[in-house]
Amino acid sequence: LLEMKRRADARDGTTPAHLNKGGKVASKWAENLVEAIDRSRATTLERFLFALGIQHVGESTAKALATWFGDLELIRRLPWPLFKRVPDVGGEVARSIGHFLDQPGNQQVIDDLLARGVRVTDTHAPTAKLREGLDLATLLAELEIPKVTRIRAEQLGNAFANAQALADAPVHHFVSAGLPAESANSLAGWLGMPGNTDLLLKCAAAIDTLLEAVPETGPVSVGPLDGKTVVLTGGLSSMTRDEAGARLEALGAKIAGSVSKKTSLVVAGEAAGSKLAKAEELGIEVWDEARLLDFLGQYP
DNA sequence: ATACAGATTCCATAGGACTT
DNA sequence: AAGTCCTATGGAATCTGTAT
Known about the structure:
By secondary structure, this protein is an alpha/beta fold. Helix content is about 55%, strand content about 5%. Helix 1 runs antiparallel to helix 3 (about 25-40), helix 4 crosses helix 5 (about 60-70) and helix 9 (about 135-140) runs antiparallel to helix 10 (about 150-160).
């Protein structure tokens, strides 16, 4: 790129305008590009994760992963079942992330980016909300073992002190834990498949790591919009929609992309279309920009 | 335990507004 | 004039709670 800029500068004024549109344009273009690349080296975890291009991880999921785990070094070593602790991440997405991270080439890409000066600027501790569900029963329920669902997982969680104890146990111990023979056999079969016991123990170790990283008592700040789902539609004149969304999020709101009966509030700006119509159809509260600004004004 | 349905997310596309 | 940014749209895939 720098070479392109150098050539463009050298050409400036010497090439007929109709062939070059003036070297300065090309020069400025190259400069802007180089600067933009430099600036992009300092980035957020959310953007970094999104940029990896993991299948099923778009902007929304990347943001969720970033806020829940907070640390790239933590995330890149997590076994896939742990990703299911994040709301809106299920089996498909969790496996997709795990599959990506399992490829040595992809880990190398991350190392290369860091080596070239890419920095994540907003590393933080995991959310306190993560503490919930970091136990053996929840893990077993999320490993997707045939015939072992929530109830069976709870029974196993109560019967065994830890994952190692479960991995070492003979089948009849699963039965005495309360499992039906079918579930017990299925679990034993699963543990016998190559890699599965290893996965279980890795998950257990990751849970211990997470428990240490999660803050003891999370700052349970209750915002005025906690539990509310807000949809923004149409154009706003005083700020972009991203800004408005960020402000509302900071007050506890969840920003959604489409209107449903779960929507608490629709903010309709200029030229709002089908989403406003749907909000009216469902009888959902609608604010115009003035009402939004008035509200935001109360919480600077 | 499983099937189903509604809600949500991902992702490509397109058009208009704005910037260079 | 060309390029970029923002927003809307809609199909396909996925998540999740509920009924069977």
